[in-house]
UniProtKB/TrEMBL annotation:
Protein name: Phosphoglucomutase/phosphomannomutase alpha/beta/alpha domain II
Cofactor(s) listed: Mg(2+)
InterPro entries on file: A-D-PHexomutase_a/b/a-I (IPR005844), A-D-PHexomutase_a/b/a-I/II/III (IPR016055), A-D-PHexomutase_a/b/a-II (IPR005845), A-D-PHexomutase_a/b/a-III (IPR005846), A-D-PHexomutase_C (IPR005843), A-D-PHexomutase_C_sf (IPR036900), Alpha-D-phosphohexomutase_SF (IPR005841)
Record domain Alpha-D-phosphohexomutase alpha/beta/alpha: where: 26-157, 175-272, 278-390
Amino acid sequence: MLPKPRADLKPNTADFERLPLVKPTGFREYDARWLFPDEINLMGLNAVGLGMATLFTRRSVPRRIVVGHDYRWYSGAVKQALMTGLLAGGCEVHDIGLALSPMAYFAQFELDVEGVAMVTASHNDNGWTGIKMGLSRPLTFGPEDMSELKSIVLNGDYETRTGGRYIFVPDMAERYVKSLTDRPKLKRHLKVVAACGNGTAGAFAPQVLAAAGCDVVPLNTDLDHSFPNHNPNPEDMKMLHAVAAKVRETGADVGLAFDGDGDRCGVVANDGHEIFADKVGVMLARDISSLHRNAKFVVDVKSTGLFTTDPVLVANGATTTYWKTGHSYIKRFNFENKSLVGFEKSGHFFFNTPLGRGYDDGLVAALAVCDMLDRNPGKSIAELRDALPKTWSSPTMSPHCDDEKKYDVVERITEHYKRQKETGGHIAGQAIRDLITVNGVRVMLEDGTWGLVRASSNKPELVVVVESPTSEANMKAIFKDIDQQLARFPEVGEYNQKIAV
């Protein structure tokens, strides 16, 4: 039996080469992320594979699983080590090779396979690796699944079984692309910037958009796992600014930016200004609810308040629920409550039947944006954006905070704002109207201005977002208050990006 993993091993030592290393903090709320090889080694990945196989057995789920990997120099080795553990645990492993996360989810349906283990660090910096996992399509792991897997792996409580079987699937990329492109061509001529940040989506996004009828302007679509320009992250202003420059240079109708594993899509308008993904969600919700009356949507707590106040959505009978941030949370809520679409501010969009199969796919989201423009031939995407009620909102801002400390900081910040509300305290001259604490704390003021603090689900960071429907000054005022509260904690470090106040 594989030895019980340890968390204290160091690379370039004998023990590192003969024992499994698994840092406990790599098991996050709904997927796994480790620095490789400092926090997990190849034997540690054997242990994770064995643990997954054991979890399938305990849940009485057939041990059949799709496995793919993203385009980083070490992802292939990580996947091979993971598969070794899965095979040792008796799994039938369907290896689809280089893939996007949504391609792996698609393969679950295409191959009629229960499980998925997609090796990807998504948009994280180089050095990170991770796994997006599921055992019931179209869902991915939730906290209970991760907690049980963590216990199995860290306690060495896994079981080897005979019957493991390896199946290589050579044509899943072609089958996935065909499924997206087997549709009517766009009637409207659209020039589209396809920006991939040199990540995995570069191998697929331009082809799909061209097949849909777009005139594609490629931007950083050549695969380069050193990410020489910027991280493939459509929430990162560096990526959005690069897309904006290309849109202005080429006169494109829209810029579409894809993250490292292709399950998210960011949007830049024809005037060269980025549209944050929650506002894109409102635009798509307007379009979709005009076709599907009384549509139900779900959005994460980072998203704009327009989902409940926009007059067009109200007139179309649309209703929206705010839920926990995280692709796994929104995906599950969307599926279980039979919402039509789920939207996350990060750019994860989840289209249920008849629009999709319930999982997040950046290319499906990109095609939905193109379809929206196709149905509005006389309007630019900037005009559709400007038709929304005006709000002032920040990008997602993330100050560093260690994984072992971030949840405690958020709990103490939440308690602070609860006391403020109870005692009638004011922020920006306003009372606190409501607190949403389903995921961190969303502080809502009398005029609809709000600010959110939560712990990142996949990095040692906090997440801060603010918005005001009344003024930029109020947006900055609530951020200033939140920033001052965070400054009280020495555990909280520098932001990755930050608005000026």
